[in-house]
Amino acid sequence: MIIKGEIISKSFKGRGHIIIRNGVIKSVQREKPGEIDIDAEDKLVIPGLIDMHAHFREPGYEHRETIESGSRAAVHGGITTVALMPNTNPAMDNIKVIGYVKEKAREIGLVDVLPIGAITKGRNGKEITDFEKLAEHVVGFSDDGSTPQSFRVFLEATKYAKKVNKPILDHAEIKELSGGTMREGKFSRRYGISGIPDIAESIAVARDVEVARYTRAHIHIQHLSTKSSVDIVREGKKKGAPVSAEVTHHHLLFKDEDLKDRSSFKKVNPPLPREEDQEELIKGLLDGTIDIIVTDHAPYSLEEKNIDIEKAPFGISGIETLLSSLLLIAEKHEINFEILLEKVTYNPANLFNLPLRGDVREGYRADLVILDPDKEWKVTEKSLFSKGKNTPFLGRKLPGVVEMTIKGGRIVYRGITFD
Ligand SMILES: [Zn+2]
User: Can you give the residue ranges of the Dihydroorotase catalytic domain (predicted)?
Assistant: First the structure.
């Protein structure tokens, strides 16, 4: 297969031809190599996106999402590799459940699934799972949705992670200090919505940085959302602590102020940032403090979400709006789109040792996306493949249409036009 288009990747930029054989990129070149199969002239050809933070809800919560609906949503969003968090029911704290998720994803065959094993059994924060047994089946360990509140348990788990050479992906939150619905500040007071103080996050971030420095284990801090958290990670990296960090696209596009309409579709944990937090998140992205951008795709049924904001569960369905969001973020914050693209392709591959992914390069897997950045699509219940329609973009037109997603040289998504 030969694809022609405007390529954006770490290794190759500009107009070129990608020759694919046996699911692998055989070469990337400027000259026309022969008969072109897919002419994506004037469109962008980029590496398949890698989302290191998503929830597909199966097993246990199939009314919110299944591995199949999640996979379809992922490829619609241009994502070909996705790391799944272990807060299923039962939790991904044992080989049986992890094996089930892997096998199911493989059968569906649309997207490569990287399971994240639970840090503690049932994610109860108390009893550490069998890291040695699970290590070869997972890309890392997390209790996402929470984190062990006990310093001793967290430290022990981190030592195990170091031993088996896998990262801890930490949802940094001190539960005793959180509670509440939105970020505490002038807007939470103005809107009369209960507030979550920023220290509920930053104290946990400080713990993580210090534990990483002490144990030399790689701790990846999930969804940073406050200025203070970014400062702490930046300082930790300067001191050589082996930490990395992520931010979600919704934390870069929406703010606490936007909760004026009390829409539970904007209720997310950690909560949407204040202006000064968002500015620092952008700075952190640009100076390398924040390594990657993730979706934290958290689908819910409309019945669960369409209730009073104080009672609704946290989470945004975001796997289909990542790529469009990157275009919006590039425009809103005046950032080069290429820099943002690296945060969802090259950087996660590099950070989590995912070989031969995240770049358009000879010998790499033919995971590719053809994107028309000039076209728009409307986010509707119908246009989303995810069962989770809980996105603040619902009803909005977004830039950037995924025309085709290719995984391992096979077309796994072909653009469908909705009105
Ligand atoms: Zn989380």
Answer: 43-228
